[in-house]
Specification:
CATH class of the largest domain in chain A: Alpha Beta
CATH architecture of the largest domain in chain B: 3-Layer(bba) Sandwich
Shape of chain B: elongated
CATH class of the largest domain in chain B: Alpha Beta
Strand order of the largest sheet of chain A: 2-1-3-5-9-10
Mean pLDDT of chain A: 91
Helix content of chain A: 25-40%
Strand order of the largest sheet of chain B: 10-7-6-14-25
Oligomer: heterodimer
Helix content of chain B: 25-40%
Number of helices of chain A: 11
CATH topology of the largest domain in chain A: Rossmann fold
Radius of gyration of chain B: 31 Å
Number of strands of chain B: 30
Largest interface: A-B, 25 and 22 residues
Low-confidence stretches of chain A: none
Order of helices and strands of chain A: EHHEHEEHEHHEEEEHEHHHH
Number of strands of chain A: 10
Mean pLDDT of chain B: 94
Distance between the termini of chain A: 69 Å
Largest sheet of chain A: 6 strands, parallel
CATH topology of the largest domain in chain B: FAD/NAD(P)-binding domain
Radius of gyration of chain A: 22 Å
Number of domains of chain A: 3
Distance between the termini of chain B: 36 Å
Structural class of chain B: alpha/beta
Largest sheet of chain B: 5 strands, parallel
CATH superfamily of the largest domain in chain B: FAD/NAD(P)-binding domain
CATH superfamily of the largest domain in chain A: NADH:ubiquinone oxidoreductase-like, 20kDa subunit
């Protein structure tokens, strides 16, 4: 029976590494567009939604999956193993979201060592009672055999520090509209950008789209956290003393945070060619600090709350710093 | 990179300067194996003609397109080697120098460690040079006119020098009269020429000169442009504004006297017969030395270093007051021969032609010299008692004798120091020059280039650069004039190649760069919401590039890629060394 040959459906996978789950939810946020997606694609692996086991993935032939959206950073041996497995099984691997792209919020753990994290979490935290100081171990012998859990690494890594990545779709989480655009581009066979590109985002930074008013005269003698100001809703956050990562962050999110009267936190990452958005933003902030001498300048700098966490909120593992040297 | 990267590496012995502390052969051999390095050689003196010829020949025979020379500081021979590249038909910027002399052989004593360090520095240079881009020289035409700000002795001297050479000068003076500080001075030290005669002589020449246009009562608010092509708006007469165009600027805005009211010990403003040196000059100009009550003073005390050489006021020496004070003593002794003149000094500074002689001569005239300690305790002026026979007393610890003394005084002259004008910063900003810590204009190099500034085409002369006497001011004026005539004569000048450039595609219009540029080379273009670089003004300092948060601005020859690849090359070599050791 010769019917018009249906275009073969794309095989699509979504996976999470060290992530909060928000990226997976952002995929769900396509809402009814999911039907459009499913017209073109079969979901072959998606732990949050489908009961497909790792062994099923292992059983797939290499290159079987057309597109994998990998979200989350690489924090433990399971993340690493799955990244490598999916790389093998996938034609186009996309680092989806800030964590896979740059390390994201889990990447802030690179300001601490594994030992510091374990002693805080398993011994010192206010809600912990652990007089025997028991800590998780990767392998534990019970009478039925050996139980194992993934090995917790000292460093958080980005996806591309573990495997080759074809594209980066930034955001915490990425704008769902961008995902649909990218997906449809792949489906319709539109010309794809060169491998290694950031997709679904602009190369100009947030300020280009931001409609808040700015003047030439940015000069700040006290930095404030967003909760410390009554935002006038109109002026540039930096001019109000609140650090907004907008100048060093690529656009593409429709300035969503700023539209919601919150400063940009930098989840879309820097434009091309900026190796380290944190240091870029630091030097830009350095130019607007008021002060005629070192002590005045230091006093102003001291008003920046948690500068490392602020300037490297999403990008520490991907920055030149990569981690705190311990 | 479109073409293959073909690097030639040359390691210089510098005689034994480098070779004795760095194993140059080993360095050349090992680094010759790095990717893209086509050949690697050592030579006794790379900077010599045979050394340069070797590079030229290798470029031509081996199609080298990049060159690294490991030798001395680039400050010494970077230009030499760039020229060699140019002679071989290669763009001179396809070159990187690794300094293994000043930074390695001269400062280390362990040959093995020094060799390792040399290798790292060279590996960085090799890694960097692969990303170098060809840059082209640019020149701009020079407008032969010159703008001079300030009609004092320095400004007028410069004006005459340039005008006499047949070039147009626009001389702008803030006040109604030309002459600056000279207007307030009677005789000049140490030879007692009349300042007014000097002034009249020079003013006459200036105002009658066909090539000098004087603008009195005028202040220049803003100068636009860059070397060779400056312009400003100036009010001609009451309302009409004219545009002046000029190729160079001389700033000769002078300084002002220190106000002694803040020094309580001297009671200036409290006792009418405590006056400043300028007020005393006025008496001398009038030819009548007298107290406020109209009496001829019998006891006159002259206090030095008022506001100078004192950390509470100005730490610097005002340079002219000691000699002026001696001049006063001489003038007093000839005007009132039986007067008692006291010089209260902290240190006698009598440098300069004829000045020590003036001191020696004055000390034979019955003038009493008393020394005080500027840091410890200033002399204190108090009201005299009824039986003291004078109006005021000065109490002081005399440093040389170690005794407390009281000096009677009917008239006290305070030798006030010199300080920058309040509007020095504003004036500096209008022409794009900066101030040093004492608010005097800062020169390009304090020793080697004392009249130029970091802004090409803008020169500083006279007291606005720091307190000085008339001959020094005139020397600077004429030096700047010579520099300017030199550039006018060349008709064009080469400008910086390693400038910043902005990528419109990336610029988000945040204007961070506009605020940080010390040369006013960046401006904001509202229509397109982008910043633009005026490359004729840019000096390639890189401040804008490092401040630009969106990566739109890069500095030619110092791109992020170039700098980071240099660091990577350097670190990689260090890591390799460590790995091979362990």
């Amino acid at each position: 029976m010769a019917k018009t040959e249906a275009k073969p459906k794309l095989k699509l996978a979504v996976y999470w590494g060290a992530a909060c789950g928000g990226c997976c939810v952002s995929v769900l946020d396509v809402h009814e567009k999911l039907f459009t997606v499913l017209e073109h694609a079969d979901l072959v692996f998606w732990p949050i939604a489908l009961d497909i086991k790792y062994k099923d993935v292992k059983a797939m032939p290499d290159g079987h999956i057309d597109l994998t959206l990998f979200n989350g950073a690489v924090r433990n041996s399971e993340n690493e193993e799955m990244a490598k497995l999916l790389r093998k099984k996938t034609k186009v691997l996309v680092a989806y979201g800030s964590c896979a792209h740059m390390g994201g919020i889990p990447g802030l753990a690179n300001f601490s060592s594994k030992e510091e994290i374990f002693s805080r979490v398993y011994e010192e935290s206010e809600s912990t009672i652990n007089p025997d100081k028991i800590r998780p171990v990767p392998e534990f012998e019970v009478k039925e055999g050996i139980l194992d859990i993934p090995v917790f690494y000292n460093d958080v890594r980005t996806l591309d520090q573990v495997v080759n990545v074809d594209y980066y779709l930034p955001g915490c989480p990425p704008q769902t509209e961008r995902l649909v655009e990218v997906f449809l581009a792949i489906v319709t066979g539109a010309e794809l950008p060169p491998a290694g590109s950031v997709i679904g985002a602009l190369n100009k930074t947030q300020c280009d789209e931001c409609e808040r008013k700015q003047t030439e005269d940015k000069s700040i003698s006290e930095f404030k956290r967003p909760i410390d100001i009554v935002d006038d809703g109109e002026s540039c956050f930096l001019e109000q003393g609140v650090i907004c990562m907008g100048p060093a962050t690529r656009g593409g999110c429709d300035v969503r945070c700023i539209e919601g009267n919150a400063p940009c936190r930098g989840c879309y990452g820097p434009p091309d060619d900026i190796p380290d958005p944190g240091s870029k933003m630091l030097s830009a902030v350095g130019t607007i600090i008021k002060g005629n001498n070192e002590s005045e300048i230091n006093a102003t700098v001291d008003t920046i709350d948690d500068p490392a966490g602020l300037f490297y909120r999403f990008s520490l593992p991907n920055s030149i710093l990569r981690r705190k040297v311990l | 990179m479109m073409e293959d990267t073909r690097i030639g590496l040359y390691v210089c012995w510098c005689g034994t300067n480098i070779a004795k502390m760095v194993d140059v052969e080993q360095v050349a051999k090992e680094l010759g194996d790095l990717p893209n390095v086509v050949l690697s050689k050592t030579y006794k003196y790379m900077c010599s003609d045979p050394g340069q010829d070797m590079i030229i020949q290798d470029i031509q025979e081996n199609n080298l397109n990049r060159v690294v020379v490991a030798a001395c500081s680039p400050r010494i021979h970077e230009l030499t080697f760039r020229r060699a590249l140019a002679n071989a038909g290669l763009n001179p910027y396809m070159f990187q120098m690794a300094n293994i002399r000043e930074q390695v052989s001269w400062v280390h004593t362990d040959r093995e460690e020094a060799t390792k360090k040399a290798k790292s520095l060279i590996a960085g240079a090799i890694s960097r040079v692969a990303y170098h881009e060809a840059l082209e020289k640019r020149t701009v035409e020079i407008d032969p006119a010159t703008l001079i700000l300030g009609g004092g002795i320095a400004g007028m001297s410069a004006a005459l020098e340039i005008a006499d050479a047949g070039k147009q000068v626009y001389l702008v003076e803030k006040k109604a009269q030309l002459g600056g500080q000279l207007l307030q001075v009677d005789l000049t030290f140490p030879f007692m020429y009349s300042a007014q005669q000097l002034r009249q002589m020079i003013i006459e020449k200036v105002v009658q000169h066909p090539n000098i246009q004087v603008f009195n009562n005028q202040v220049v608010e803003e100068v636009n442009g860059y070397i060779g092509n400056f312009s400003t708006q100036i009010k001609n007469g009451k309302k009409k504004e004219t545009e002046l165009k000029f190729g160079n600027v001389i700033v000769a805005t002078g300084l002002k006297a220190f106000d002694p009211q803040g020094i309580e010990a001297y009671a200036y403003g409290k006792f009418p017969n405590v006056i400043t040196s300028l007020e005393f000059e006025k008496m001398l100009l009038k030819g009548k030395i007298q107290t406020k009550e109209g009496k001829v003073p019998k006891n006159i005390a002259i206090i030095h270093c008022v506001g100078s050489r004192n950390k509470d006021y100005h730490e610097y020496c005002s340079r002219t007051c000691c000699m002026t004070a001696l001049k006063f003593a001489n003038q007093l002794k000839s005007a009132i021969p039986d007067s008692n003149v006291y010089e209260l000094y902290a240190d006698m500074r009598s440098f300069g032609k004829g000045c020590e002689e003036l001191y020696t001569k004055t000390s034979t005239k019955g003038v009493t010299f008393l020394m005080f300690d500027q840091q410890d305790k200033l002399p204190e002026v108090i009201k005299a008692g009824k039986n003291d026979g004078c109006e005021m007393l000065i109490q002081m610890d005399e440093k040389l004798s170690g005794e407390e003394v009281e000096i009677p005084a009917d008239l006290i002259v305070l030798m006030v120091g010199m300080e920058a004008h309040e509007d020095a910063k504003k004036t500096g900003h209008s022409v794009g020059i900066s101030l040093c810590g004492n608010s005097f204009y800062i020169e390009k190099h304090p020793k080697l280039d004392p009249v130029a500034t970091t802004t090409d085409g803008v020169y500083i002369v006279g007291n606005c650069q720091g307190p000085k006497d008339i001959p020094d001011s005139i020397c600077q004026a004429k030096a700047a004039a010579a520099r300017i005539l030199g550039t006018i004569n060349k008709k064009q000048v080469e400008i910086e190649v390693t400038t910043a450039f902005a990528n419109e595609e990336l610029c988000c219009g945040c204007q961070t760069c506009v605020q940080v540029c010390p040369y006013t080379a960046l401006s904001y273009e509202e229509e397109k919401n982008i910043s633009v670089v005026n490359e004729a003004l840019c000096k390639g300092c890189g401040t804008c590039g490092s401040a630009c948060p969106c990566g739109a601005i890069s500095s030619r020859h110092f791109t992020d890629k170039q700098i980071l690849s240099q660091i990577e090359g350097l670190m990689e070599m260090i890591l390799q060394e460590e790995i091979s050791e362990n």
